[in-house]
Amino acid sequence: MESFGVSRTVLREALRTLTSKGLIESRPRVGTRVRPRDAWNLLDADVLDWYSRVAPQVDFALKLQEMREMIEPYAAGLAAASHNDVSFAALDDAHAAMVAARNVDEWVRADLEFHLSVLAACSNELLIPLGTLIERTLEAQLRLNAKRADVFNASLDEHTAVFEAIRDRNAPRARDAMAALLGVTRGRIEA
């Protein structure tokens, strides 16, 4: 309370929030302790964002990449098979923004929207929150990858291949194109 100049009520609320996120535990006569990392709720957007800021950058990026490699190719296949006019319009807008991007910031915003639109277009309401969950950390990864490439939009062709496969409702091609795109991403992370 003294260090941060806050009231007892604010401190209690902060501790309650950290407890709900699995970061700490409070017990009578024992006190408040930080829980082991494997007990943290990394599927909480705040915890994931906080963890991404302190974890070794390359290690965290590779773990996020592994998760993306497990989910996004399948999601692209689902999007190809089941997108509707509204979800495809969002994907089309994101792709057009990528094509029109003139700098890293524009590219990263469009790239993020592209990947979130793929998740939304797959018509699986359980996958959509996944995009929201990883949005902040994914944006950081996309920015890093754009800066590591020779030019910020170096992966435009790979994104276009995913877009066209989804547009054409070709699920196997969409899965393969997304896997190839993520392979390029992995290569930049590992470089």
TrEMBL record:
Residues 1-37 form the HTH gntR-type domain. It comes from the Bacteria. InterPro entries: GntR_C, TF_FadR/GntR_C, Tscrpt_reg_HTH_GntR, WH-like_DNA-bd_sf, WH_DNA-bd_sf. Keywords: DNA-binding, Transcription, Transcription regulation. Coiled coil: none annotated. SUPFAM superfamilies: GntR ligand-binding domain-like, Winged helix' DNA-binding domain. GO terms for molecular function: DNA binding; DNA-binding transcription factor activity. PANTHER family: GNTR FAMILY REGULATORY PROTEIN (PTHR43537:SF44), TRANSCRIPTIONAL REGULATOR, GNTR FAMILY (PTHR43537). This is HTH gntR-type domain-containing protein. It comes from Paraburkholderia solisilvae. The lineage of its organism: Bacteria, Pseudomonadati, Pseudomonadota, Betaproteobacteria, Burkholderiales.
